[in-house]
Backbone:
């Protein structure tokens, strides 16, 4: 099978690593990829959101299956373009990808399907949004309605914070088009977890779960990011509870999407809050998470490519997904300045020494090779240092040994990934 994997982040490096192990694979192309994926296949200089360019590449390389990694190509309609070109695609149509592309659409689906979620209101102008939060009070969650690369959510603990978020998004345009409309939600209280499943039509097959750490600083302080680390599986959220959450929060969505004539095929990522009243939906994403995918995929024992091919064919009865019983962790090493303007260009060394630590894998994201062939930082989130072990404590110890082995002076990272889960185990 000739495969085109779309994307350039740590998630795609982890996916490429798993796909490269498949006996079904004949050739792997990654667009645009990164220096880490270059060791697993052929990187191609086509942007992840360049749908016409990706289709031209797929035709030229006689691709059998397109696997979109990030959300941008899905929201831009790559699955529809693949269908027109007669190429299989393991992802949802543009209409179905609105589950991630529009917070309003997701809330409307939840209301129609009876899915537990936070109370909400949508605004197209700043003044009524400001009036609403002043009447409602805090805490509230302010969300950009469109795609914002994981940075469009502000959990405002005060009215002043909510006002600032609304002004930033709607008046100052800090998130561009994504923030021209906002959804303001009641603030759910509990533990947040990420649930993943393969879906086709009204059928969902559980992949697994992880727990992300969104804020930049230790102790969940500072601004939200695209994710600073994850553990898998989450403490207290075993497979029985994961299946129950699928029944409550995912399968009703699939039935409602099918009823509307926009059935969902691909990977669903349901962000959940485990509240005292039970699980409630925070949001849907239409792909694997990052850095959750890295923590999940290092525990994968089955054939990811075979599973994705079965999803694309709508044959979920053939979807085999098996993970080891180990615990795993991913620790994101970001560039100083992230989630604002990151410091780029700094050399990164000793990845081989880090990867030699038992159970460790290092996935690249915002990296590139400079003119001298050195690996350097080229983005905000740069590396995901992952470890799997028989216990979460051992996995944490090995991951942080690997982080310390990497020579990159500009790195920032959280020192407490996994500590909340460890405390819950004690």
Residues:
């Amino acid at each position: 099978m000739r495969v085109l994997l779309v994307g350039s982040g740590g998630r795609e490096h982890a996916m490429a690593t798993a796909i490269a192990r498949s006996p079904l694979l004949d050739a792997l192309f990654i667009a645009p990829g990164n220096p880490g994926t270059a060791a697993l296949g052929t990187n191609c200089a086509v942007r992840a959101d360049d749908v016409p360019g990706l289709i031209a590449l797929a035709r030229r390389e006689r691709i059998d299956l397109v696997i979109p990694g990030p959300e941008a190509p899905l929201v831009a309609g790559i699955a529809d373009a693949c269908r027109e070109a007669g190429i299989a695609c393991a992802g949802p149509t543009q209409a179905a990808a609105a589950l991630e592309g529009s917070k309003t659409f997701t809330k409307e689906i939840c209301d129609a399907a009876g899915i537990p979620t936070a109370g909400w209101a949508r605004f197209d102008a700043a003044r009524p949004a400001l009036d609403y939060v002043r009447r409602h009070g805090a805490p509230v969650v302010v969300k950009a309605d469109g795609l914002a690369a994981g940075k469009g959510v502000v959990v405002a603990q005060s009215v002043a914070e909510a006002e600032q978020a609304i002004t930033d998004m709607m008046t100052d345009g800090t998130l561009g088009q994504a923030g021209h409309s906002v959804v303001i939600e009641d603030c759910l209280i509990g533990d947040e977890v990420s649930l993943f499943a393969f879906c086709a039509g009204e059928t969902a097959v559980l992949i697994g779960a992880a727990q992300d750490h969104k804020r930049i600083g230790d102790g969940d302080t500072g601004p939200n990011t695209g994710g600073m680390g994850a553990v898998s599986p989450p403490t207290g959220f075993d497979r029985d509870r994961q299946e129950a959450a699928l029944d409550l929060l995912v399968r009703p969505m699939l039935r409602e999407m099918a009823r509307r004539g926009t059935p969902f095929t691909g990977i669903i990522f349901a962000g959940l809050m485990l509240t005292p009243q039970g699980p409630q939906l925070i949001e849907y994403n239409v792909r694997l998470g990052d850095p959750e995918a890295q923590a999940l995929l290092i525990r994968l024992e089955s054939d990811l490519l075979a599973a994705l091919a079965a999803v694309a064919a709508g044959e979920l009865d053939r979807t085999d997904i098996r993970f080891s019983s180990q615990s795993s962790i991913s620790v994101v090493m970001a560039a100083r300045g992230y989630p604002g303007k990151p410091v780029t260009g700094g050399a990164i060394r000793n990845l081989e020494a880090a990867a030699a630590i038992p159970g460790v894998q290092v996935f690249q994201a915002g990296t590139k090779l400079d003119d001298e062939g050195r690996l350097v930082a080229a983005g905000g989130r740069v590396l995901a240092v992952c470890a799997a072990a028989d216990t979460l404590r051992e996995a944490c110890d090995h991951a942080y040994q690997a982080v310390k082995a990497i020579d990159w002076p500009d790195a920032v990272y959280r020192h407490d990934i996994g500590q909340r889960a460890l405390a819950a185990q004690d």
